[in-house]
Amino acid sequence: GQSDTTCHAFVGETVVLPCTTTPPGELIFSKSMLYWQIDKKIVHFFQEGKDSLEAQDKHFHGRTSLFWDQMKHGNLSLKISNVQLLDDAEYTCIYKQSADHQTKKFYIKLTVSVQTHFLSSHQLHADFLFFNFSGQSQISSRSPTEAPCLAMLPLSFHLLVTLGVWHL
Question: Where are the annotated coiled coils located (predicted)?
Fold first, then answer.
C-alpha cells in the first residue's frame, strides 16, 4: 500500500514510528484497541488500557513500547529499540474504537541499514598505534595521546640522525 510516512534507522538504534490521530476529546481506552502489525504479524497490541503482548511476534519481544502518557491525546506512535535488519518493513497502525466501531489505519514504512563508519580511519589509526607501541591494551596509565608520541620520538630522532649523516 501507499505509506503515510517513511522512516529510516540504522541497526542498533531506537526508532519511533509516528502515528497520531486527532481525537475530538481524550481517547477512551477502556474499550479501544491499538494494533501495530506487519501484514498479519503482531508487532505490538494494546487493549483495554494496557499492553497485551501474548500474541506479539517473538522477533519484537522486549523491544517495543508506546507513549502511554501521550496516547489519550492521540499519539499512537511505536518506539522500537535495538533496530534489526529484519525490522525493515511496512507497518500498519490500526486503531479501533469499539464504541462507534471506527477503525483508523495508517501505514508507516521503515527502512533499516547498517552503519559502516563506526570509527573514522583517524581514530582507528590512533588506537592501533597506541595498542601496538604501548605493548598492552588500552588499559594503561598513559593517556592515549601520550603513548604514540613517546613511541614516535626514537623513530624521528633516528631519521634526523640518518639524514644529518647523509648530508655531511
Answer: none
Farthest CA pair distance, the chain:
98
pTM reported for the whole predicted model? 0.67
What are the angstrom distances between the C-alpha of 93 and each of 21, 75, 118, 168? 10, 11, 33, 81
Exposed (0-12), middle (13-18) or buried (19+): which is 136, by Cβ within 10 Å? exposed
Name the fold adopted by 5-115: Immunoglobulin-like (2.60.40)
Taking phi over 0 as left and psi of -120 to 50 as alpha, with beta for the rest, 74 belongs to left
Q: Is residue 13 left, alpha or beta, with left meaning phi > 0 and alpha meaning psi from -120 to 50?
A: beta
pLDDT in tens, the chain (168 residues): 567 899 999 999 999 999 998 877 888 888 889 999 999 999 999 998 999 999 999 999 999 999 999 998 999 999 999 999 999 999 999 999 876 667 899 999 999 999 875 555 555 554 444 444 444 444 444 444 443 444 444 444 455 555 555 555
| Whole-number Å distance between alpha carbons of 45 and 36 | 6
Task: Give dist(CA 108, CA 6) in Å, integer.
Answer: 6
Helical axes 121-134 vs 146-167, angle rounded to 10°:
80
